[in-house]
From TrEMBL, chains A, B:
<dbReference type="InterPro" id="IPR036390">
    <property type="entry name" value="WH_DNA-bd_sf"/>
</dbReference>
<keyword id="KW-0804">Transcription</keyword>
<protein>
    <submittedName>
        <fullName>FCD domain-containing protein</fullName>
    </submittedName>
</protein>
<dbReference type="InterPro" id="IPR036388">
    <property type="entry name" value="WH-like_DNA-bd_sf"/>
</dbReference>
<dbReference type="InterPro" id="IPR008920">
    <property type="entry name" value="TF_FadR/GntR_C"/>
</dbReference>
<dbReference type="InterPro" id="IPR000524">
    <property type="entry name" value="Tscrpt_reg_HTH_GntR"/>
</dbReference>
<dbReference type="Pfam" id="PF00392">
    <property type="entry name" value="GntR"/>
</dbReference>
<keyword id="KW-0238">DNA-binding</keyword>
<dbReference type="InterPro" id="IPR011711">
    <property type="entry name" value="GntR_C"/>
</dbReference>
<keyword id="KW-0805">Transcription regulation</keyword>
<feature type="domain" description="HTH gntR-type">
    <location>
        <begin position="13"/>
        <end position="81"/>
    </location>
</feature>
<dbReference type="Pfam" id="PF07729">
    <property type="entry name" value="FCD"/>
</dbReference>
Amino acid sequence: MFRAMNRDVAPAETGAAVIARQLASAILRGEYPPESILPGEIELATKFSASRTSVREALKSLSAKGLIQSRKKAGTSVRPRADWQMLDRDLLALRLEIGPEHSFATDLLALRQAIEPAAAAAAAQHQDKAAIAVIAAAFAEMEAATHDRTRFVDPDLRFHKAILAASGNEFMMAFGAMIEAGLAAFITISLRHSGAPAPSVPLHHNILKAIEAADPEAARTAMETLLSRTKSNISQDHA
Amino acid sequence: MFRAMNRDVAPAETGAAVIARQLASAILRGEYPPESILPGEIELATKFSASRTSVREALKSLSAKGLIQSRKKAGTSVRPRADWQMLDRDLLALRLEIGPEHSFATDLLALRQAIEPAAAAAAAQHQDKAAIAVIAAAFAEMEAATHDRTRFVDPDLRFHKAILAASGNEFMMAFGAMIEAGLAAFITISLRHSGAPAPSVPLHHNILKAIEAADPEAARTAMETLLSRTKSNISQDHA
DNA sequence: TTTGCTTTTATGTCAGACATAAAGCATTAT
DNA sequence: ATAATGCTTTATGTCTGACATAAAAGCAAA
C-alpha cells in the first residue's frame, strides 16, 4: 500500500540551499559585517557557478531570517545582529559549526534556564491531558534506554519538546530547535571528556510527576534542578 | 551632502513580499492546515496574477520561516506548527492582525516574564558599561516623555531591547521583535479601556539602578515587578 | 501480492529580457 | 558655496519560456 513512507524526511539540498548556507555562514563568521554590502547578484551567480535565479532565491531565504535586506540600486546589505533570527534552526546549526562551542552552549543553556522552568510550570498549570501523556511516553522511552547513550538522546529531546507543547503557550513551542541545538552542543562538549553520563532519569521523573500532579512550582523547581546539573557539566569543560 | 538619509527605512513592499504575506496569513489562519498541500506554483501564479518566479521567491521566504517545505513532484506542504518560527517579526505581526488579541498578549507576556528577568540579571552580572549607558539613555528619554503616551512607546521599547543587548548573551538579543510585538499588543488592548497609563517610570528606574549597581537578583526582581504590573493591566481586559 | 519498469508531474534551475526605483552625477539656481 | 533640479546609471524586481530532475503514480510481469 504505502511503498514510500518518507513523508517526514528532509528533501535533499539543492543549489539555492547550498548558496544560502554558504552566504549565511560567511555573514555569521563576520566576513560580511553588519551594514556592509554584499556583492551584486550577478557577481554572486558567477562566484557560485549558478544562475541569478538561484542566487536570488538564496537571498530571499537569508532575508526571511533577518540576515540581510535588499534595496533597489543600493544593493543587498547585512542587517544589524539584533535583527538576526538566531533561534532559527538553520542559523543555530551554522553557529554551532562555526564555534566557539563553549559560549554557544553556555548562552543557550542560560536561555533554557529562563524558558523551560516557566514552560514546565505552565504545563503543570494548564493540564492538557493528551499533551502530558506525550511527555510520559517520552519519559518511558528514556527509562528504557538509560544505559544506551545514543538511544537516550532522541526521547530526551522529545521529552523537553513535549513540555513546551503542553504549556499551552503558542510561542513556547517555537523553542524546540533551540533545545535541540542546546542538547547537541552539550553532547559535543561532554563527549570530549567521555565522563560517565549523569543519571538524569530521576531528575526528569521529578518533572513529570510534578506536571501530572498539577504542581506548577514543583515543576519549575524540578526543571531548574535538571538544568543546573547540566550547567555544571558544561562548566567543567571550560576549566 | 546627504540628500537622502533613508538608509534605515524599510523598502517598499513588492510583489513577492505581498504574496508571501498573503500565503503566510492563510496558513496562520488555518486555511491550509499542517500536512496539507498548497496549490501548485503555476496555480498560485495565476491566482496572484504574478509570474511563477515571484511565487517561488515568496515560497522561499515562507520556507525559511519554517512554515512550509517543498518536495519535488509531491508539492509544497505546510509544516507542523512546532516548526513555525513564531518569534519572527513578520509572523508575530501577522498573528496580531489575525487575532485573537488577548491570548496573543498573555502568551507573549508569559514569555517576557521568562526571558526579561533573566536578561536583566545577566546584564547586572555582565557589566558591559557601554551597553548599560544605552539603557540609561533610553530611560532618560522615557522620563522626559512621561506625560506623552505616544512619545513614551519608543524609548520604552529601546529600554527593553538595550537590556537584552547588555545581557552579553548572543541569543537574548533575538527577542527584540518579541518584546516589540508584546508592547504593541499591550497598547492595543489598554487603549480600548483608555485607562490612565500606569506610572511605570519608577519601576523602570529600579531596574536600571539594580543593573548599574551590579545586583543581579535585584534586577531580576525589579523586572518581574514591572511585568507583573503589565500582566494585571492585560488581565482586566479579559474580565 | 510483490517487484520492477515507465510515465507523469511538480519542483528546481537556467537564460535572457525588460521594469523600476533610487543613488550618483552634473547642471542650474539661489 | 550651498541647495534644489533633472538626467543617467545601475542593481534589484519581475516576467517569459524552456529544460532538468527526482519522485510519486501507474502499469505490467513475476
